[in-house]
Specification:
Blueprint (H helix, E strand, L loop, with lengths): L9 E10 L2 E2 L1 H9 L6 E2 L11 E2 L13 E2 L2 E2 L2 H17 L3 H4 L4 E4 L5 H9 L11 H9 L5 E4 L5 H14 L5 E8 L3 H10 L22 E9 H6 L6 E10 L12 H13 L9 E3 L6 H15 L12 H4 L6 H15 L1 E2 L21 E2 L4 E8 L3 E8 L11
Parallel strand pairs: 7-8, 7-9, 12-15
Antiparallel strand pairs: 1-2, 1-10, 1-11, 3-4, 5-6, 9-10, 11-16, 13-14, 15-16
Helix pairs in contact: 2-5, 9-10
Length: about 400
């Protein structure tokens, strides 16, 4: 266990993204400014379902390596995770020696299941076993310490971020690689089709015509580091992960609890953990999946949280741009919040015909400047598993921010 340096501030020193917007952080930001990606039909056989589209990583950008781990054939999800991990470590300036003591905490839900689907479709009578994606990434980067895969469905990487935050604050690690990855599979799509929660058009949160969510593949990685440790090695932080919280509805296997009480609790506790209030928030990245009940309950919870100010507080609907990356959604939210703070801008949202019952502000005409150096990110999941976390500009006290 590393001796903690006494500075409990946790900063973000490395970023990586592979999504339907392209590979790399620049491609991610440019894609958001350009209005996001378009869904395409999933390239897998036996799609006997109503909705067959996803927001897909360009197949030419899906890495071919690694092909195996511990004798197990690997599909696209672990390969995307390894590629994003290597990007983030390079961005953070961490060498192979530093990686030996680097914990890896990943949100992963379906993991290597696309390889199982391909093998079974090819007529194999035996197929590869599942394998923890964090272990694959750990082996690829040479980590010799804690490797954890978190499976809390669509809030998995949100939980992973809070676990990493706690580890650094407690002095269990100076630096942690945290993120999420998902591949293109029939399993998740089939489940949501059976539930009647898969939108056949696109992912359109808060739209009056929304008919469910639309999935996406991809990987996002973030390097978290104790601020003192980053300073000593000369790393320049992008932003600070200032606070986080969990809550659980314990209400229904799939539906959110109608009052949104536990959603409000997660947001309130995350801001309290960051020693901030709702008035300090400059933007919210909502969970916003496009399922009718989720968007309604979250918008009502946001109104309770922010009061009349919710009509002038910008929300950025990330899933409308890149689709629902399920377990990786929290990591993509953290990365996007960091880029927004660096550029002090909330990009324009994808155009929607907004549901009047979802009475929140989604700027669509143009990008708007952030008026405060804090972004609140929400992730929710089946079973009522909620996380909220706070990303703050490292120069947040700077008078150049207009308030």
């Amino acid at each position: 266990m590393n001796a903690f340096d006494g500075d409990r501030r946790v900063v973000i020193t490395g970023l990586a993204a592979i999504s339907s917007l392209g590979t790399g952080v620049t491609a991610h930001w440019d894609g958001l400014l350009a209005g996001g990606a378009e869904p395409a039909e999933i390239p897998l056989p036996h799609l006997n379902m109503r909705t067959k589209k996803m927001y897909l990583v360009d197949r030419s950008q899906v890495p071919g390596e690694p092909t195996h781990y511990a004798g197990v054939e690997l599909g696209s999800s672990p390969r995307l995770a390894v590629a994003a991990a290597e990007q983030a470590l390079l961005d953070a300036g961490l060498d192979r020696e530093a990686c030996r003591a680097l914990p890896v905490i990943l949100g992963v839900e379906l993991g290597n299941s696309d390889m199982q689907e391909l093998q079974r479709s090819a007529g194999r009578t035996t197929w590869t076993t599942l394998t923890p994606t964090a272990s694959v990434v750990g082996a690829a980067i040479g980590s010799r310490t804690a490797l954890t895969s978190v499976g809390n469905a669509c809030s998995a990487s949100g939980y992973a971020l809070t676990i990493a935050l706690d580890m650094i604050r407690a002095g269990e690690a100076d630096t942690v690689l945290v993120g999420g990855a998902e591949g293109a599979t029939r399993a998740g799509m089939g489940a949501f089709n059976r539930l009647g929660a898969a939108d056949p058009v696109r992912c359109r949160p808060f739209d009056r015509h929304r008919a469910g969510t639309m999935f996406a593949d991809g990987a996002a990685m973030v390097v978290l580091e104790a601020d003192g440790h980053a300073r000593r090695r000369g790393a320049e932080p992008y932003a600070e992960l200032a606070g986080a919280a969990w809550s659980c509805d314990a209400y229904h296997p799939t539906a959110p609890e109608p009052s949104g009480e536990q959603i409000v609790r997660a947001m309130t506790d995350a801001l309290a953990d960051a020693k901030l209030s709702s008035s300090d928030v400059g933007c919210v990245i909502p969970h916003g999946t496009g399922t009718p009940l989720n968007d309604l309950v979250e918008s009502q919870a946001l109104r309770r949280m922010f009061g009349p100010r919710i009509r002038s507080l910008p929300l950025f609907s990330l899933k409308a741009m890149i689709g629902h990356t399920t377990s990786a959604a929290g990591a993509f939210g953290c990365l996007t919040a960091t880029l927004m703070l660096r550029r002090r801008t909330c990009p324009a949202n994808a155009p929607i015909d907004q549901d009047p019952e979802c009475d929140v502000w989604l700027p669509q005409e143009r990008a708007v400047p952030l008026e405060a150096p804090v972004v609140l990110v929400n992730t929710y999941a089946f079973g009522g598993n909620n996380t909220s976390f706070v990303v703050r500009d490292v120069k947040g006290e700077d008078a150049r921010w207009s308030r």
